C-alpha cells in the first residue's frame, strides 16, 4: 500500500515538473514574426540583426498593458519623447536619454501582436546599424493584432 502511494506521488511529481518546464520554456516573444525584408529576427526575447551574423540589437518582452510599458519608460526618463509611428496597428516609439544609467538610453517601441502588447528596446549603440530606425519601424508595424 505504501509503495503504491509513493509511486503515485512520484508520478504526479514528474507530471507537474514536466508541465512547469513546458510552460516556462515557451517564451511569449516566440509568437513575433521575424522580418526577413529588414533583417530582424526574434529569439528568446532578444532582437537580432540577420544582416551581420546575428548581431544582438536589442530586447523585446511582453507587458500587461500600455500603462505598464509607459511607467517603465518614464521611470528611465520622465521627459521621454513619444511618437506615434503607426495607427494600424498601433506602434509607439519612445526616445529615452537616461542620465543616471546609459544602459536604458535608446529607443523603445510599443506594439501589439495576437492581442498581446510588447515592448522592444534598441540601445543607442544598436541604432548605428544601417537604417535601424526604418528597420525597427517596419518590424513593429508587421506585427498584426488578430
Computed structural class: alpha+beta
Mean pLDDT: 85
Whole-angstrom Rg: 20 Å
Shape type: elongated
- The SSE order reads HEEEHEEEEH
Q: Biggest sheet, strands in spatial order?
A: 1-2-3-7-6-5-4
Total beta strands: 7
Helix content: 25-40%
Largest sheet: 7 strands, antiparallel
Strand content: 25-35%
Number of helices: 3
Through-space gap between termini = 53 Å
Molecular structure report:
This protein is 32% helix and 32% strand. The chain is an alpha+beta fold and 146 residues long. A seven-stranded antiparallel sheet has the order 1-2-3-7-6-5-4, sandwiched between helices. Strand 4 (81-87) and strand 5 form a beta hairpin. The chain is elongated, with a radius of gyration of 20 Å. The model is unreliable at 20-25 (pLDDT under 50).
Short characterization:
This protein is an alpha+beta fold and 146 residues long. 32% of the residues lie in helices and 32% in strands.
Secondary structure layout plus pairing:
Elements: H1 2-25, E1 40-43, E2 46-49, E3 55-63, H2 66-76, E4 81-87, E5 90-96, E6 106-113, E7 116-123, H3 132-142
Antiparallel strand pairs: 1-2, 2-3, 3-7, 4-5, 5-6, 6-7
Amino acid at each position: 500500500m505504501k509503495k503504491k502511494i509513493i509511486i503515485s506521488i512520484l508520478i504526479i511529481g514528474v507530471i507537474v515538473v514536466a508541465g512547469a518546464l513546458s510552460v516556462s520554456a515557451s517564451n511569449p516573444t516566440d509568437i513575433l514574426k521575424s522580418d526577413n525584408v529588414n533583417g530582424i529576427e526574434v529569439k528568446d526575447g532578444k532582437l537580432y540583426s540577420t544582416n551581420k551574423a546575428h548581431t544582438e540589437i536589442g530586447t523585446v518582452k511582453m507587458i500587461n498593458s500600455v500603462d505598464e510599458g509607459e511607467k517603465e519608460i518614464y521611470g528611465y526618463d520622465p521627459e521621454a519623447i513619444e511618437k506615434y509611428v503607426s495607427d494600424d496597428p498601433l506602434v509607439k516609439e519612445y526616445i529615452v536619454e537616461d542620465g543616471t544609467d546609459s544602459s536604458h538610453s535608446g529607443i523603445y517601441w510599443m506594439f501589439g501582436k495576437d492581442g498581446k502588447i510588447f515592448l522592444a528596446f534598441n540601445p543607442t549603440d544598436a541604432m548605428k546599424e544601417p537604417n535601424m530606425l526604418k528597420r525597427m519601424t517596419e518590424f513593429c508595424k508587421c506585427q498584426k493584432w488578430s
